[in-house]
Amino acid sequence: MESRGISLGELAVRFGCKLKGDPDARVNHVAKLEAATPDAVSFLANPKYRAYLATTRAGVVVLDEASATDCSVPVLVTKAPYLVYARIASVLHPPPNLPPGVHVSAVVDAAAEVHPTAHIAANVVIGAGCRIAARVVIGPGCVLGMNVIIAQDTRLMANVTLCDGTVLGERCIINPNAVIGSEGFGFAPDQVGGWVKVPQVGSVRIGNDVEIGACTTIDRGAIGDTVIDDGVKLDNQIQIAHNVHIGAHTAMAACVGISGSTVIGRHCMIAGQVGIAGHLNICDNVVITGKSMVSASINKPGVYSGSLHAEEAGKFRRNAARFARLDDLAKEVRQLRGKHQSDPAENTKID
Amino acid sequence: MESRGISLGELAVRFGCKLKGDPDARVNHVAKLEAATPDAVSFLANPKYRAYLATTRAGVVVLDEASATDCSVPVLVTKAPYLVYARIASVLHPPPNLPPGVHVSAVVDAAAEVHPTAHIAANVVIGAGCRIAARVVIGPGCVLGMNVIIAQDTRLMANVTLCDGTVLGERCIINPNAVIGSEGFGFAPDQVGGWVKVPQVGSVRIGNDVEIGACTTIDRGAIGDTVIDDGVKLDNQIQIAHNVHIGAHTAMAACVGISGSTVIGRHCMIAGQVGIAGHLNICDNVVITGKSMVSASINKPGVYSGSLHAEEAGKFRRNAARFARLDDLAKEVRQLRGKHQSDPAENTKID
Amino acid sequence: MESRGISLGELAVRFGCKLKGDPDARVNHVAKLEAATPDAVSFLANPKYRAYLATTRAGVVVLDEASATDCSVPVLVTKAPYLVYARIASVLHPPPNLPPGVHVSAVVDAAAEVHPTAHIAANVVIGAGCRIAARVVIGPGCVLGMNVIIAQDTRLMANVTLCDGTVLGERCIINPNAVIGSEGFGFAPDQVGGWVKVPQVGSVRIGNDVEIGACTTIDRGAIGDTVIDDGVKLDNQIQIAHNVHIGAHTAMAACVGISGSTVIGRHCMIAGQVGIAGHLNICDNVVITGKSMVSASINKPGVYSGSLHAEEAGKFRRNAARFARLDDLAKEVRQLRGKHQSDPAENTKID
What is the interface pTM, i.e. ipTM, of the complex? Predict the structure, then answer.
């Protein structure tokens, strides 16, 4: 299907769009508006790129009603262009269809169960007690410790490490060099200034349809499990500490760090480089903007910001704007106070 | 011993606790207060969880004198419940006892020495000149370059990379996908806007009882070595640049970055996402709170904070609280100043 | 040459320095001023270390005219001591000369082309359609997906993952456990609070002379490619999102995160832990200081700072200095206002 493609008429029917254009024309891949050829589907979701509608050579553009008139080529009109584009792209660009079987170089323990439809790539290592379900893909160089359980249709890219006892749901995607189930960071201070290791006896349980980014790390529970619920999406370089619980459909951008035992609700969105302290509760439907530091629980849905500590985002924006004029403000206060008092800030070289 | 467990009486004697309960009762694993069964040890160290004492079904709870009366099941009373718990858990949950020997799929250079009691797992690669001591564990997929030296009882989890010349002490634990001894980031600007690589000719030396987290990276010295002293604990996703020196028993939480040539003292605690600039000195017994940026040396023990640049923590907290009201403060100053002057902040759309 | 070394006279000629000392004396390695022996070259580039000039035992020191008189041993005088040192060190410490050929344990697809002078180490996996040019080094445990193209003299350290379609230029160095070409983070919200994956159909194209740090991740384009131009230097633990474009000779320190579709100019310097939001343009010759958050495009060369959001660095420094006295400033405002009004800040416990 990918080579001959799919007709615009079929796309309109399958994805509930209104088609303006020839229903028998065919497309076979996706492309950006400005680079698309007549056999490509493109889309407009961000108004920033609207100018390309006039000149695009795409075979069809997925867009909303308001943009349709600007477009010089066939259109598929929908209220949710990005969503419909995602679904069309998934049809035109399915994941590679890897043959079932275990590569001769893979090392699979005799006490592991691998479904005959699973694809186990070169140099994979699978420990005793693992159970690999139907159509699972384990990419080259991945290491599974003991008693790892992977449900059907989940795919691990290359060099992923799943430590002992990790449980993965269905249809998950784990990107390269991610680590799941590593030892949590738990030490008790002894009486002479050193640290005594606290054995980390829990595991990691991951639901269905979870995606985990490259070099992201998820520690196993210290006692009890670390839990990632269905539909959670984690970008690259994220750190999830022991005993964290992330609610369903929450998404986190890259470089976020979540400290131990924090519970995050459902449908949250955490932007890049955010840090969340330990033992907190973040309720459902919370959005946290980039680089914020969250050092207290959040009990009310909303948008939160702040690199000192997170607060309601509108208030933060106003304070941040004032911060950008803080030196001026301090000088005003000095004028108001009069010159007879010395200004301590003047005694320090600050630039 | 793990299956039959250990008697409460023996625990009391070995760990110097006062037992209230049957000394012949036995426990064989650890569990959280709320999930524990009568064959489990639990503990109370954080008062937040005190309410569970009334209903726990644990076989015994490790706690302090003040909490003992609230508990409905046997107790082991100590002044340091978390420390005693850690030690009991280490007895009940020892690391897996892996058989000695080199897996047939491992590639060990003929010019490497591997002690016969070491465990070398599947798909390990060990270069020329390496020396692996007694009872060392090298997990699946690990790569050791040339001339890597690992002292006894150290364990590497999976997919760890140790570059040429790395030296590891005794009883260290290195978590999956950590990288030790990679090239430091050193470039000299040329005269035409490009960069000339400065060869990184040093190595990394790591002491005894050091733990290193998943995906943590430690660069080798540019000239001279990067040094991590005894008992240092590094969480996941930490970056240690070339020629850094970390003093004994210092602990760092996840996502910390330490720039080149900085020297950190003993017994410091660095919280998550902290950044420390290069060529600084941080003295012994310094605590730095989460997400702080340290851009100047610290010469006095204490607690430091700040995302603009670190300062004494109490002062930072007060300023941060004021920041959270900065927009109000600016408006007050405007009122004091009177309405006849225009407020530049009012001319900008800030929310 | 490394054992017998090179004469000071030859160094002076090759690198355009003025030599004060015996031209026939020889050196064979580099060392720090304080640790150098008479067969070592050392250098002085940071005035902080000038005191060592009086006591160093180095065979020769590379330095500038102004420092030459302080030095008790032979000197090579140049206007660019660090640059000349880098070049001399590269001559004395060339990368290891690895033998050509494919290790017996490597798994190379029959439909991949590997140049006979390339070095393919143990446990490497190379997929169908890959093309590996002359003198390329692929370190142990590296995984190359399908259709990866690597130009001549590029070296991959251990456990690196290059996903399908990645293109690398000449003379690049990729440090251990880096991941290039992983799936970008793209999801469209569905109408019931979940996320629909947006297939990531682009790739990653990397120019010549690029260096990439350990555990750094570069995502492939969502649609179109992620592009890293010639001479870019990326430190460890950096995250580059899909469709980012980084201009030639830009350097980034560790732990930086760049969000999707952002375009960064040439000759920029981005310090550690900086975050740059998505869909921005950063022009050429921009410097961004450590831990800054950039949430708007930058159209003018200069130095930018700020953890709230980046602004011109001098102004930021003044505001940050005022922030460090914000509590005092607020108290002054309160005094000016008089005691008859209550201070809201006094009603909250802030420390």
Answer: 0.93
